[in-house]
Amino acid sequence: MQTNPKNLLKESVYKALPSRGKGGQHVNKTATKIELSFDVLGSSFLNAEEKDIIFKKLGSKISAEGILRIVSSEQRSQFANKKKAQERLLAIIEKALKPRRKRKAATPSKESKEKRLKGKKIIGEKKQSRKKPQL
Question: Which CATH number describes the domain made up of 5-97?
């Protein structure tokens, strides 16, 4: 990834919402759930090629308007959820922009070829021994 990850966080928009789950009455009174929205199309830190790659790999996670949303509500505090959402955003974008390694076709070793041929020979001899002798 060529861009600085901190810059992507500057473009992110955060929204605090009431969360459900553990925390008892505290959960009902405070907005601890964080919804992070990142505008992929409007990002000034991503170039056109990077945006294209992100859309190809994360197409199902990006809305029609080009916004990637990440929701975090695992933690009890808003701050911890915000940090978790930021980490997830950076991880998702970094993974999408990481180029895939080309697969190298493996060539069988000399020993494995010999082992395979030896096995075939044994099976062939076994089948040969089952035949009726020719007169």
Answer: 3.30.160.20
Q: What does the DSSP 8-state code read for residue 113?
A: H
| pTM of the complete model | 0.67
CB-hemisphere CA count at 13 Å for 130? 6
Amino acid type, 43: S
Mapping DSSP to helix (H, G, I), strand (E, B) and coil, where does residue 69 land? Answer: strand
User: How far is Cα 16 from Cα 30, in angstroms, rounded to an integer?
Assistant: 9
Q: Name the helix (H) or strand (E) containing 90.
A: helix 78-97
Local confidence band at 48 (pLDDT 50, 70, 90 cut-offs):
confident
- Return the amino acid letter for 79: F
pLDDT tens digits for range 9-46: 888 888 888 877 666 676 667 788 889 999 888 888 88
Tokens of 61: 């996670």
Cβ contacts of 1 within 8 Å, gap of 6 or more: 50, 93, 94, 97, 98
Residue ranges per domain, the chain? 5-97
Structure tokens at 52: 């294209």
